[in-house]
Design a protein that fits this description.
Protein name: Cysteine desulfurase
Catalytic activity: (sulfur carrier)-H + L-cysteine = (sulfur carrier)-SH + L-alanine
Order of helices and strands: EHHEHEHEHEHEEEHHEEHEEHHEH
Number of domains: 2
Number of strands: 13
Bound molecules: pyridoxal-5'-phosphate
GO molecular function: cysteine desulfurase activity; iron-sulfur cluster binding; metal ion binding; pyridoxal phosphate binding
Distance between the termini: 42 Å
Structural class: alpha/beta
Family: Belongs to the class-V pyridoxal-phosphate-dependent aminotransferase family. NifS/IscS subfamily.
EC number: 2.8.1.7
């Protein structure tokens, strides 16, 4: 049986057209784009074309607003570090409780080592930002507010254009981690007050280890990687030319497939959700079901203990991801589900299925067949679950 890959928010398969576009840049087009001879000029042209593809995908006004980086993590780090360096009279940051560790662990580090005040804005039970707390935290002391475009675990989308306007009113920069949004939902920066945006190649069928940071023209930016004058002095180091060309091709293809993400891919996700909710009792969807990425399903099955869902799905040939921070060696539910106050006994049974244009109807059928007996089997083993459809009263969750 073919494996079913439903972990596209973790990473995507590199599109065959992307691989084909990259290959010459390992062989005959190996030149350094900074070189003055023909080898360099050819490659320089390809880098420029890639920059234009990204400009078009995110609706940037100028191609030089795109700075190539090694991925989402570097872009996130660079945006915050640059904002602090370029605005030394401001020493506060605003972010949310559900950001990726690329933001949250940097903020924790800055708080500890440099005494930067970090306002962590809470979310509600659907993962939506507490707008009042955000507004209250904004002040002329804030160097940058960084709020993600869409959450990687639940797909919940944040009103970043409005949040950016609010930040601008107090003179703070606004950055958004759009690693999960770019390629899945339309992004058009032209008419927004967003100053910086992070994206990553491997989330949109491009290669790993390449990404970009959009820096709006006029925003003071301080390079965080010191070296040569590459990327107009905003990121030192010889460019990853095969990666850049691959990212450019991936951006071009993402634009072509954008409609499919909103229709066919979304329909697959919706059929899976509906089917699972019908087949498995005591199950609910986490996140803001009215406003989320079209490819992401995070489903919590109550009264399951432990991490076994993923292992059993894997045995059935299905790759998904969990709501628990199992990679950290802890069995704690993820910081995102905890921030949403999802009850412990449900957060443990949370599973994320994330689709892409590679998925087909049969993938949904396979999960609909495999998942109900897995949940049934695990509930029989769980101390939280006592018999068919009944949970002990003390474990009955209350949802705000
Ligand atoms: N931000 C978000 C929301 C992500 O989902 C990820 C990757 O999982 C990253 C940042 C990090 O991106 P990269 O893997 O390119 O460093």
């Amino acid at each position: 049986m073919n494996p079913v890959y439903l972990d596209n928010n973790a990473t995507t398969r590199v599109d065959a057209e992307v691989v084909a576009a990259m290959l010459p840049f390992f062989t005959e087009q190996f030149g350094n784009p900074s070189s003055m001879h023909a080898f360099g000029a050819d490659v320089g042209g390809a880098v420029k074309a890639a920059r234009k593809s990204l400009q078009s995908l995110i609706g940037a006004e100028f191609d030089h607003e795109i700075v190539f980086t090694s991925g989402g993590t570097e872009s996130d780090n660079a945006s915050i570090l640059s904002a602090l360096e370029a605005n030394p009279d401001r020493d506060e940051i605003i972010t949310s409780s559900v950001e990726h560790p690329a933001i949250l662990s940097l903020c924790a580090h800055l708080e500890k080592t440099r005494g930067i005040k970090v306002h962590i804005i809470p979310v509600d039970a659907k993962g939506r930002l507490d707008r009042d707390a955000y507004s209250a935290a904004l002040s002329p002391k804030v160097a940058i507010a960084s709020i993600m475009w869409a959450n990687n675990e639940t797909g919940t989308i944040f009103p970043v254009a409005e949040l950016a306007e609010e930040a601008k009113a107090v003179g703070a920069l606004f950055h958004t981690d759009a690693v999960q949004a770019v390629g899945k939902v339309p992004v058009d920066l032209k008419s927004t007050a967003i100053d910086m945006l992070s994206l990553s190649g491997h989330k949109l069928h491009g290669p790993k280890g390449i990404g970009a940071l959009y820096v709006k023209r006029g925003v003071r930016f301080r390079s965080q990687i010191k070296g040569g004058q590459q990327e107009r002095g905003r990121r030192g180091g010889t460019e990853n030319t095969p990666g850049i060309v691959g990212l450019g091709k991936a951006a071009e293809l993402a634009a072509l497939h954008m409609e499919e993400e909103q229709t066919r891919v979304k329909a697959l996700r919706d059929r899976l959700e509906k089917g699972l909710l019908q087949r498995i009792p005591n199950t609910f969807i986490t996140g803001d079901v009215d406003n989320r990425l079209p490819n992401t399903c995070n489903i919590a099955c109550e009264y399951i203990e432990g991490e076994a869902i993923l292992l059993l799905l894997n045995r059935a040939g299905i790759a998904a991801s969990s709501g628990s921070a199992c990679t950290s060696g802890s069995l704690e539910p993820s910081h995102v589900l905890r921030a949403m106050n999802i009850p412990y006994t449900a957060a443990h049974g949370a599973t994320r299925f994330s689709f892409s244009r590679d998925n087909v109807d049969e993938d949904v059928d396979r999960v609909l067949d495999a998942m109900p007996p897995i949940i049934e089997q695990l509930r029989q083993l769980s101390p939280f679950w006592q018999g068919a459809g009944e949970a002990p009263a003390e474990f009955k969750p209350v949802y705000a």
